[in-house]
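User: I'm new to structure prediction. If I give you an amino acid sequence, what do you actually give back? Let's try with this one:
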Amino acid sequence: MIKNIIFDLGGVIINYDKNKIINEFAKTDEEKNYLMEKNFKAPEWEKCDLGKITNKEACDLINNRENNIYLEMTKDFWQRWYKTQNINEEVVEIAKKLKSKGYNLYVLSNMANSTYEYFRAHEFFKLCTGIIISAQEHVKKPNEKIFNILLNRYNLIADECLFIDDDDTGKSYEIANRLGIQGRRVIPNSSEDIRKELGEYGIKI
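Assistant: Good question. You get back a string of structure tokens that encode the predicted 3D arrangement of the chain. For your 205 residues, that looks like this:
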């Protein structure tokens, strides 16, 4: 019996689309490619998610490595990319209904400190019994350790948990399911697919 709903943030609670973010900052194809290849895919991105460096440090490292080729654009990107995203209020309404029905809500997300600090005041987080953010734990999905941190810290029974995540690699679900946590990948930014998944597990809202 499902008692606990575990939410990812980016692509689930927070609308997240790399191409839309890039279009906010870049005008030419060359600039867009630079943001994707030299920023999103840079090792500094993961280091931010792991809480090893700040956004400013990531920006400085990238600019130095790339000879300041897009100095101002890169600064602008790292200062406010996450501020271009918004909360998926339809999913928050689903969370509220789940809470009202007695389900315990949790967060398990790969996220940099700056992004979490920006969004944490939103009412969604007040609904949550527990929140695990990779930058605070210095480990990220799909590492099994972060799932065990969640289960152990909040005394959760794995098969009583439903995991809602848009991970397109399948690795996070492979680990979660192996631990006994239930769930499947949901379509990014889709409240409709979240409702569908809940229904698949007998949860009606």
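You can read the tokens as a compact description of the fold. Here is one thing that stands out. The chain is about 50% helix and 10% strand.
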